[in-house]
Design goal:
The C terminus is likely disordered. The chain starts with a strand and ends in a 13-residue tail after the last strand. The chain is about 0% helix and about 60% strand. The protein contains no helices and 22 strands. It is mainly beta.
Length: about 260
């Protein structure tokens, strides 16, 4: 992990291992802090952008590392309550795509390099579930993890339009997805089993690893590398870290299962 972003007491903080210069005094620092008008419900960041869904049902976007706000979009016409899932991805042409999901619908916003909104589309995933996690594999593929039905909705961009491509169901009849992440171009989904968390590679249909866990599923973050995984679990004021644990490589294709 080279950077992180979190919110508390109406403040948004960005921290990076790599130092950067402040815009005001040009002093080197590792973090930026911005004051917010309200509380952030959900936050996410890409290489150059941070996004926060606010309690008053809008999304605010910031450029990294300075946390300079460049957009504030009202979501009340799209969702009756503030969405709990957001994902971002930056393009090589300086555009940024933002995905916001709730109640089986995903709103996709695209901004150009001058921070202007150039596209706004909504996709109905027909999943019948809310989302706990959204994750871009690349600028044309978005994987959406359902909150309670064990279903991953795959959305793709064809030309200039986003559309539902397919659904993928977590094996073993597990319904409680914790997160969708990726390694290179392989989407990885983690889900709660009894007293444990299980990881699968969706493309190769391979079970990667299973580790013990007894906490809440919305307090888990998993990062998969080639041959290992790192999972951080927050429970109350304690943080449990599973690191450098053995894991099947996402390039390994074992006996496939049918999800």
């Amino acid at each position: 992990i080279t950077s992180l972003c979190f919110s508390r007491d109406k403040k948004l903080l960005f921290y990076s291992k790599k130092s950067f210069k402040k815009k005001i005094d040009q002093q080197l620092t590792n973090c930026s802090i911005v004051h917010l008008d309200s509380t952030a419900v959900s936050i996410n960041l890409s290489e150059k952008t941070a996004g926060a869904v606010m309690v008053e049902n809008c999304v605010k976007l910031f450029r990294l590392p300075s946390l300079q706000e460049f957009a504030s979009i009202d979501l009340s016409d799209d969702f009756p309550t503030p969405p709990s899932s957001i994902a971002l991805i930056d393009h090589s042409n300086l555009n940024t795509t933002v995905a916001i999901g709730s109640l089986a619908y995903v709103l996709l916003l695209e901004f150009d390099g001058e921070n202007s909104l150039i596209s706004r589309q909504t996709v109905d995933t027909n999943s019948g579930d809310d989302f706990i996690s959204l994750h871009f594999i690349n600028i044309t593929s978005l994987f959406c993890g359902g909150k309670s039905n064990g279903l991953v909705s795959v959305i793709e961009k064809v030309g200039t339009s986003w559309r539902l491509k397919s659904h993928w169901r977590v094996p073993w009849q597990l319904r409680s997805i914790t997160e969708v992440t990726s390694y290179e171009n392989s989407p990885i989904v983690s889900a709660l089993a009894k007293d444990s968390i299980v990881l699968w590679d969706i493309i190769t249909q391979t079970n990667l690893v299973k580790f013990s866990y007894n906490g809440k599923k919305n307090r888990v973050s998993v990062q998969v590398n080639d041959g290992s995984f790192t999972a951080s679990c927050i429970d109350g004021q304690k943080v449990a870290l599973f690191s450098n644990s053995p894991c099947l490589s996402t390039r390994f294709v074992g006996q496939p299962f049918h999800g």
